[in-house]
């Protein structure tokens, strides 16, 4: 059931315009605020290694962001603390990311970070300083439904900034103790509010990349990280095969491929070829035509349900299989091995193991899991 909370809120301050504006808005509303920033990754750590950039600036979780967050806290006159969570971030986000990629899957670290750090650890630290709740700059909405006795996660007013795909793992306790003040605003409106509060970063660009991978070059990051750890790159070289099983080439490692990929296959063909499937047991990479990249069903595990306590009977939903995917109609039902089976009305392209499948009923997030 809905609880009564005190007036102290810990604001997760990333150093961007969204979280900074949240702090300004909540202060106007009379909340007692404490600013918290999680230091997750040392951007200089792999600089120059294995082709990595010598200098990385203007990135999420960078030193510049920490400085910006502290400056906003000073402007607003609220206490501010920097929390070092680098070791936990490496153990629970970076290492699983590297492990999944080497196994031929395409992980999504932002969801892991939200589940195990940005909400879990922030709530723990918030309670330690006397705050019952946290507030973040995510574009999402949450509300309590007394009829279902559940907290519901909903898409925001600005659907172009919708971040609910990355939040499917939030628990009922986390949702009950989180404020999403930007859920009813558009991004231009948020920037205008920041200007009205004379926040210096009102025009600061958004960060678009995974915070610990400059330029989005996953392979280069993995090479540099393994080199730093003194771990050899595992040999996952193998065959490139057609959908009929014919060997048509060889590759140097399954981590170089992702489902749906067209470029960089090292093959010449009169028609474009795409990665259809990656088999980490045999190191085979199956390739075929674009039409062969579509499938009608997927399985997902490690499920979390939000708008319902559990999935009983089959349910009609819209399923989203990657951040930029337009949710598609599907029927979901539980399988015998505690996985959900989603059957799409129309085949979907590049359903990728390691990504999330998130299910929607209108604006509500029903739940989600990890595609297998």
TrEMBL record:
Class of this enzyme: transferase
Catalytic activity: S-sulfanyl-L-cysteinyl-[protein] + uridine(34) in tRNA + AH2 + ATP = 2-thiouridine(34) in tRNA + L-cysteinyl-[protein] + A + AMP + diphosphate + H(+)
EC number: 2.8.1.13
Limits of the tRNA-specific 2-thiouridylase MnmA-like C-terminal domain: 296-371
Short name of one Pfam family: tRNA_Me_trans_C
Top-rank taxon, per record: Bacteria
Subcellular location: Cytoplasm
Gene3D superfamilies: Adenine nucleotide alpha hydrolases-like domains, HUPs, Translation factors
Keywords: ATP-binding, Cytoplasm, Disulfide bond, Nucleotide-binding, RNA-binding, Transferase, tRNA processing, tRNA-binding
Ranges where the record places region Interaction with tRNA: 161-163
UniProt KW Signal keyword: no
Start and end residues of each tRNA-specific 2-thiouridylase MnmA-like central domain: 233-288
Annotated site, Interaction with tRNA, chain positions: 138, 355
Positions annotated to bind ATP: 12-19, 38, 137
Family according to the record: Belongs to the MnmA/TRMU family.
Its job: Catalyzes the 2-thiolation of uridine at the wobble position (U34) of tRNA, leading to the formation of s(2)U34.
Protein name, entry field: tRNA-specific 2-thiouridylase MnmA
Annotated source species: Alloacidobacterium dinghuense
